[in-house]
What does this fold into?
Amino acid sequence: MEKTETLTDKQLEGAFKTFMKKRNEQADKKQQDDGEHLSSYPLLAWETCITRFADAFESGKSDTKTVDALCKCLNEYLVCWGMTRNSNLTREHYEEQEQVVRAILKFPKLCGKNPEDFCDEYGDAYRQLYDLYETLKGCCAKFSRAQEPKASGTLISKTILGTLGIVPGYDQKVRAVLKKYGITTGSFNMETFKKFACYFTKHHVETIATMTEEAQKLCPLYTRAKVIDSLLWFIG
It folds into this structure.
């Protein structure tokens, strides 16, 4: 059996310092930039997207104008994080996100959930996320370039991260760190996410909670899953 390394609080603390520095650098640079697009500011793109969806959940609005604005915001965030690579997703055709946005708006109770809320597969939060995941597998399949279209686990997880903030984005760097430290292997699905949630509930929970409170001073909608996502990305 292959021996895995142990992820330490010290590593997480170092990654958190890097994350905070990069986020503030992006914010300072954005203040001097008059451009409309957030393509050079991926951390700010996430903050913008999660804020817009939080506002929509709070207002309960799902009219055409609201959904169109959310489609544009979600698409811009996904473009910032490289989701146009090897997919049919484009910045110009943001309206193709409508089915995705309308599906997500049906799950307002998932807002603000923490990893520990998903450790019980019979719990309400887990079952709701399962339903959303199954729905997005169908909605996101159209963005695949494969001969037999199949939704990318990376795209699904990045979408949920940007709109609800409750799962990490399972891109190549995050998956590599999760595998290296024996947390989980493979792409995003409910099984790998449950392992992720249970690991960070059992280990590092106080450290992550403290870091999340610090990140919320910059943007109140930072979640534990988003903080963990950023830590893993910078460790990778």
The mean pLDDT is 92. The CA atoms of residues 52 and 106 lie 15 Å apart. The radius of gyration is 17 Å.
